[in-house]
Amino acid sequence: MLIAQLIDPDYIRDFDHLSDIVNRAASAGVDLFFFGGSLITANPKFDIVKALKDISDIPVILFPSSPAHIDESADAILFLSLISGRNSEFLIGNHVAAAPILKKSSLEILPTGYILVGCGAATTAQYISNTSPVPYNKPEIAAATALAGEMLGLKLIYLDGGSGAEKPVSPEMVAKVKAWVSTPIIVGGGIKTTKDAAALRDAGADILVIGNGAEKRPEFISELSEIRV
Ligand code: 1GP
Hints:
The chain has helices at about 15-30, 50-55, 90-105, 125-130, 140-150, 170-180, 195-205, 210-215, 220-225, and strands spanning about 1-5, 30-35, 60, 75-80, 110-115, 155-160, 185-190, 205-210. The chain is α/β, with parallel strands linked by helices. It has one domain: TIM Barrel (Alpha-Beta Barrel). The protein has an 8-stranded parallel β-barrel with strand order 1-2-3-4-5-6-7-8, surrounded by 5 helices. The protein starts with a strand and ends in a 6-residue tail after the last helix. It binds SN-glycerol-1-phosphate. The site of SN-glycerol-1-phosphate has 15 residues, from strand 8 and helix 8.
């Protein structure tokens, strides 16, 4: 199982702050940085993706909510289709706008079925995408959605409670999706304890995404090295 640390540009105060995060991530063995956010409200004071590439060897994968977030300094992009929703812009519309730009870039394209799950109060991702999440207690809906995504050719499935979710996606849902698809499964949103992380790992998550949990308690990233396999 891999650990991806989400770098939200709104959270980064300055270059020294980013350096601290990178140093901690490197010593904890973080495998990937995801970069992005559903709603970016601040004008970054510096080019964070370029800085990440300059000071770290950890691959940087864009996690965009808009074609405006394409950044050629990164290594790859999650080409996310929001298959839990029925908003055509996030299913295919933004992709049409982004595809010609991506074709000219050197970014690795990672076609990803993105499934938002209701994990407590509505998250920014749900609001901004104007979609209904899969209900928390309906693993079979998540599994059928993931299976349809795999049949459409998507290479990764991302089960996300959304950044700042009150609780993570249930291990039961992850296990059901794991049983139905053969793609790697990314799980994120609301993971704040090693107990949560271990349960999701045991259920079959291939990549865990940690954002708020490490923003609020930076040592959480180091603690996760204990439960990695
Ligand atoms: C959000 O999965 C990521 O898309 C991370 O969520 O910030 O809640 O860890 P958190």
